[in-house]
Design goal:
Layout: E1 8-9, H1 11-15, E2 21-25, E3 28-32, E4 38-40, E5 45-50, E6 53-58, H2 79-83, H3 102-112, H4 121-130, H5 134-148, E7 152-155, H6 174-189, E8 191-195, E9 208-209, E10 215-216, E11 221-222, E12 271-275, H7 289-315, E13 319-323, H8 328-341, E14 346-350, H9 366-386, H10 409-439, E15 449-452, H11 455-481, H12 488-495
Parallel strand pairs: 13-14
Antiparallel strand pairs: 1-2, 2-3, 4-5, 5-6, 7-15, 8-9, 8-12, 10-11
Helix pairs in contact: 3-4, 4-7, 5-9, 7-9
Length: 503
């Protein structure tokens, strides 16, 4: 809570034409005019910059004597409006992007496995930069598309697709595609909390995700500020939205039991909480696929930087100026001329000086080491996300690879990932999402299940059936030419169509 402050108002200073508003930083008051702050009435908060750092405060001024008190008196962060989007309780503070190395990678899992008050802040800090890597992003999008490109359907108790039911057509809308995309991200990040938002005409056009760094999956709370112990209990059906997010007497308060809104709506009803299993037993929530990917992505990023340094030092030409000028201003002019010639490195020495660029004799093929490490990292990332190291780099038709064959190792691995992902997502939707939608008024029968039509299996079944019919027709033709009579009804049943003997 270091960036949350109470705002004070001094009427005497205001009458004297001085800055009347103030907040305390390190025990010292800092005064400002209200127009120096960024006030957002819709969110019930304001923000002011003091000494290069942003501090925020509730816009419901604590001092009723403030001329702005009536203007910002209403605090919209309350009751049902707030229950539909818990993100409104999160402080508008930028989540910093920091330099990531393997030490940070180890510290992240240490922070997540702390026996008392574990957090996922450092882990999510790594993930937000990880997904910016081009290869990681491409692999992750490819994995999600294995499921998202399929046609979603509802199946009845006889495992038949339910068709022509307008009440179930929402699974073909854009908001549903966005929702399923967000749900699949839980596999990568370890968990996901989705806010449904306001419902408009039976749809949720404002569905969005809650900042993962503010979520504690072990305590199942959303904290307004990272590293807070408590927060909004989104997974508790009995936890209602608060009447007042800020309490005057307690100055700043996020969880005041006395302000509970017993008649309001629960955060639980308007949010979908998804978490992954933890195979280590150190938490009730997994770390996500990205933790295994992160080490290779960090190595690949560092390798790219070293490769760029190598190219700059040994591949690009270096300009060497020898001069007998000793006057500083004249040498400075010569250096400016070198700078204006281009961006390559340059050196200025006296005429008598000699310069040698020494390097390891093996650096002649150093580019191979950079390329080799990058290729190994990419293969490892592809194997972790897609099940096989050649999923993103394999060449169709390569000798011995069988990659043009459906039974190739690459295709087998991706089918396994696809099947596992489909089963995981369908269980989340059937056990978690559909009950919430029913409670919100969606007319979804309880005896149907959500799933995906497997086009590959359908095509394979159709191909097998067509081959069987073709072989059967060939047998009938052989028998007919030999003078045998074949029952028309039997032939019709085997071919699945009415057959009549010609004249």
């Amino acid at each position: 809570m270091s960036n949350i402050r109470k705002i004070s108002y001094n009427a005497s200073l205001d009458k004297a034409g001085k800055k009347p508003y103030s907040i305390k930083v390190d025990g010292k008051p800092y005064f400002f005019n209200i127009n120096q702050a960024t006030v957002i009435p819709e969110l019930g908060r304001g923000q002011v910059n003091i000494k290069g750092k942003n501090y925020w405060f509730p816009t419901e001024m604590f001092d009723p004597a403030s001329p702005n008190f009536g203007q910002y008196k209403v605090n919209p962060i309350n009751m049902a409006y707030d229950a539909k989007n818990v993100s409104r309780t999160i402080a508008p503070v930028q989540f910093p992007r920091v330099r990531i190395d393997l030490r940070e990678w180890r510290d992240a899992i240490t922070e997540a496995e702390m026996p008392i008050f574990p957090y996922r802040v450092k882990m999510q800090q790594i993930y937000q930069d990880l997904i910016l890597d081009g290869h990681v992003y491409a692999c992750w999008q490819k994995r999600k598309r294995l499921t998202l490109l399929k046609k979603p359907v509802f199946f009845d108790k006889d495992n038949h697709a339910v068709e022509n039911n307008p009440q179930l057509s929402f699974i073909h809308s854009q908001w549903w595609n966005t929702l399923t995309d967000y749900l699949l991200d839980a596999q990568g990040y370890g968990y996901q909390l989705v806010s449904l938002g306001d419902m408009e005409s039976g749809q949720f056009p404002n569905v969005n995700v809650v900042r993962r760094q503010n979520i504690s999956p072990d305590r199942e709370v959303v904290s307004p500020v990272i590293y807070m112990i408590d927060g909004i209990h989104y997974a508790d059906p009995n936890y209602k939205a608060r009447n007042y997010f800020f309490d005057r007497e307690q100055e700043v308060c996020f969880n005041n039991p006395d302000a509970a809104n017993e008649g309001g709506e629960s955060y639980y009803d308007w949010h979908i909480w998804v978490k992954t299993p933890n195979s280590f037993g150190m938490s009730n929530c997994g770390y996500g696929i990205f933790y295994q990917v992160a080490m290779f992505a960090i190595l690949m990023r560092n390798n790219l930087k070293l490769n760029a340094d190598f190219v700059e030092m040994f591949a690009n030409p270096i300009r060497w100026l020898k001069t007998n000028k000793t006057n500083e201003s004249e040498r400075a002019l010569a250096e400016i001329s070198l700078q204006n010639m281009g961006s390559n490195a340059y050196i200025i020495t006296d005429k008598e000086d000699e310069l040698q660029l020494l390097q390891n004799p093996a650096t002649g093929n150093a580019w191979e080491s950079y390329t080799s490490l990058e290729a190994r990292c990419k293969k490892a990332i592809s194997a972790v996300i897609l099940g096989h190291e050649d999923c993103m780099s394999g060449t169709p038709g390569k000798l011995g690879s069988e990659q043009g064959n459906d039974n190739s190792p690459v295709n087998k691995a991706m089918r396994e990932v696809e099947c596992e992902q489909d089963k995981w997502l369908c269980s989340i939707i059937n056990d978690n999402v559909l009950p919430k939608l029913r409670s919100l008024g969606f007319q979804i029968p309880k005896d149907i299940l959500y799933g995906y039509q497997n086009n590959d299996e359908l095509n394979e079944i159709a191909e097998i059936d067509n081959k069987r019919k073709s072989d059967f027709a060939a047998i009938i033709e052989t028998l007919t030419r030999a003078g045998y009579k074949v029952d028309e009804k039997y032939v019709s049943e085997q071919l699945g169509m009415e057959v009549k003997r010609g004249r």
